[in-house]
Amino acid sequence: MDDQKKFPTHLAYLSFFILCFFLTIPPFLNGYWVANDILYQLNWNELFQQQLFAGDLYPRWLFELYGGRGSPSFYFGCPLPYYVSAFFALLIPGEQSSWYSLGACYWFALAVSATGLFRLLTCYTRPGAAYMVTLFYILYPYHLVVDLYIRFAFTEFFAIFIVPYLFLFSHQLATGNRSAAPKLSFAYCLLILSHIPTTLLISPFICIHYWVVSTASKKAFRICTALAYGVGLSAFYLVPVFFLKKHIAIPQLFFGRYYYENAFLLVGGKLFPDWANFWALLNNLAMISLALAILTIVVQSKPSRLAWFFFLTCILSIYMMYPVSSIVWQALPPLQIVQFPWRFFIVLNFFLFFNLALIYGKQLPKRNVVKTSMQKLLVAILIALSLFSLVSCYRYSATSVSTEEKTYIDKALATGNTGGSENLPRGVSATLVDDVNNNTLTRIDRLFEVTDVRLIQAPRLQNDKIYLEIMMPEPGVLKFNQFYFPTWQCIDKISGIEKKIVKTAKGFMEIELEAGAYHLVFKHRMTASEKFGIVLSLLTAAALIWRARRV
């Protein structure tokens, strides 16, 4: 306790934010770089901010994506990271505010995650040891090199900001702090709104961690209730996802390199040799992490129950990345939503450092030369991993994209093309899918295609609605160049009548109109699932507040 009082905690927090700043921001100052998901994130982030700042408080449909054809991206995509990015964009002036706001989010997520991990580790070890372990965690290559520099996996990276707090609140709840239950529920809601695969991976281990630490009765009831409240809080997002998922091109999410059987370590490199270095990095990191996990348990003279839990979780995580675990993936279909088995690095990422903290919380006997040597070897491996991350940061900060690569990225941004077709509505023509995948998509100049029609006022997008005033001299068909989706509705403000929208063979929309004047409003209706989700979230919030006041 005396050590904890003397330790400069606030200076530790400040150092985390400074270190994370220099690891995440410099590459963004150097401009774009080539990464797996960079086209997705650039387009989604910029268009989300445009609609949000224009008054669309929850931009579920991105009107300008895919060359102006639209996309139901945030009927399914987790919105929280993009709201935080929009907040940073308000603070950053200039034309590149959307790009720099992404960098700010990476910095924020890593720094807040480190702060939470430090707070959690001080429950297990001395503050000084917790501080050193947290520094190694910040420099761990998976989230820095793989998720940021190579993949640009924005939402997956962002989700790490809340994970340590889930285990912190779970620990507090397990040790008798009942006020931690509402905090755990709220944190779990934030995780769901950040990244679904991370939620699926982390959730079972939160429950097991609570069960290992807690000595109270009704263990399962308490932790499951807390997490259930978190699910209820996020119902406004989850319920529409469940009911509307059949209307997007979901098979694209589980095909080719996105199919879990093709993404096992030792398999992916053979199937996709163009990414051989990426697969080699993941495999080497898994083997090094395995060595670290073994060292963390061998070095301890009498490993505690908690230490064994951390160790076995690390071993399980590594096992799930390799083809030998295929039977488990087949037996648990919901697990396949994770897509990539190597995403178990997310779990390994934390539990490896949890166990490291237990080591440095104990003083090894000076005469035990073998274990002292093992501890030094462990530190040497951690330093080597940290240096690898630092060198990667310098490389991405000093290297610019080629002219050809910049042209490719600029074209994708100009046409609103993500380079992937998995967020297209179901039923879009195969030709258009190929254009998206090959970045040959062209932008549609007009939202509407009409013949022999007098345009009274050009179509305009305002907030989350499109307005059009026309005069039809005779009956005809109005073609709407946005992708069809069951939430679309068209209302004529003059007559107050809703017009029937028909899906075309290419996945667009058309409306049959009689002769006359029309003032049409195209918008997305709030579906029954959205209404139910909002009501459920509000009721859960009320119940959680009531429960918190009783504690």
Task: Explain the overall architecture.
The protein is α+β, with helices and mostly antiparallel strands. Helix content is 58%, strand content 9%. It has 24 helices and 9 strands. It has helices at residues 2-6, 9-29, 38-53, 65-68, 73-76, 80-91, 97-121, 127-138, 141-150, 154-159, 163-174, 180-192, 196-213, 219-233, 235-244, 268-271, 276-298, 305-319, 326-331, 345-360, 369-398, 403-415, 430-437, 528-550, and strands at 448-449, 454-462, 465-472, 476-480, 488-492, 498-499, 502-503, 509-513, 516-524. The strands form 2 sheets. Strands 2-3-9-5-6 form a 5-stranded antiparallel β-sheet, with no helix packed on it. A 4-stranded antiparallel β-sheet has the order 1-4-8-7, with no helix packed on it. The two termini are 27 Å apart. The relative contact order is 0.12.
What can be said about this structure in brief?
The chain is α+β, with helices and mostly antiparallel strands.
Detail the topology: elements first, then pairings:
Elements: H1 2-6, H2 9-29, H3 38-53, H4 65-68, H5 73-76, H6 80-91, H7 97-121, H8 127-138, H9 141-150, H10 154-159, H11 163-174, H12 180-192, H13 196-213, H14 219-233, H15 235-244, H16 268-271, H17 276-298, H18 305-319, H19 326-331, H20 345-360, H21 369-398, H22 403-415, H23 430-437, E1 448-449, E2 454-462, E3 465-472, E4 476-480, E5 488-492, E6 498-499, E7 502-503, E8 509-513, E9 516-524, H24 528-550
Helix pairs in contact: 2-7, 2-8, 2-21, 3-6, 6-7, 7-8, 7-11, 8-20, 9-21, 11-12, 11-13, 12-14, 13-14, 13-18, 14-24, 15-24, 17-18, 17-20, 17-21, 18-20
